[in-house]
Amino acid sequence: MPDFVRENFLEDAAREMNRTAQLMELALGNKLTDIPELLDSPLSPAEIRHLVPWILRNARIAETDLLWKQLGTMMTFADLEAIKGELVGVNLDPLIRANSDTWRAKRAYVGLAVRDHDDPDLVSNTHWSVIGSSIGRNVKEERLHLADSARTLRGRSTQSSVLWTDLAEPARDFRLSRVELRGVTRSVAVNAEQSVDVREDVERVSRSFDETFFVSEVGVRLESEDPDTDGVEARVLLGDSLVVSDAGASLADLAGVALRLVSRSGIEAEQVQDVIASFEHRQ
Questions:
Q1: How much is the pTM?
Q2: Which alpha helices (H) appear in 139-277, and where do they start and end?
């Protein structure tokens, strides 16, 4: 830290100034031999509001996750949501992709694709961006939204449901914790009381009856931050086009569930990677 900064500013202010300079060095493509200790602690709300938009607009290094992963350790997805008003028209792709496995949120919603008339190129290039009140990305003719706050994404609140036969194939990508099959003459609820995945049980039940079953809600078990648990549950509300995980799940997991189980665009598993995977994982 330069002596004049140390001598003329309070310690916290001097620390933030020095850290800002180091992050700007990384953003401008100047390599640091290692990550300084100053970059090991969370950014302050002021740093997030002023520095992060600047880095996103001015970073000269596109095809590396180093800078973006480092930023991801210093803030959360909720922090990014808090400054979304400062991010309109900004390409959020590198920051969200680099932290999709570690950042956590509570909701994903799939709606119609949104066109931003003020910045049509950003949306047509299907980058992660802020349009309206949420952070999202266009995927084919739909838009995937992610949020940590229930106030941001509430879903459509319709009563529609999906044929189990249409859901069975993409559901094989996930561990199902709960499924309620609704038919004309009978309904069958299958819950994971002793098993971590009831998918095979659901398929066996559906084959046992001469019945067309519909599904309006599915429970999916996703990875938890605690490796000693069986995971966290996410509720897939098909009528609302919404995925809800009260405990929080990774952006990658939420996006995968939403695009495979909620989307009506026929998104394949490998296409999910094109939407959310980091630069390193796309190599």
A1: 0.85
A2: 164-171, 199-208, 251-257, 269-276
Secondary structure (3-state) at 283: coil
Residue 19 C-alpha from the chain's centroid: 27
Q: Give the Å distances, CA to CA, from 261 to 76, 136, 210, 230.
A: 26, 17, 24, 21
Which tens digits make up the pLDDT trace of 53-77? 988 988 775 556 778 888 899 999 9
Strand bridging mode 214-215 / 187-191: unpaired
Residue 157 region by backbone torsions, left for phi larger than 0, else alpha for psi between -120 and 50, else beta: left
| Domain boundaries defined on the chain | 1-75
Distance (Å, whole) CA 124 – CA 37: 40
CA distance 201 to 13: 59
Measured distance CA(15)–CA(20) in Å, rounded: 9
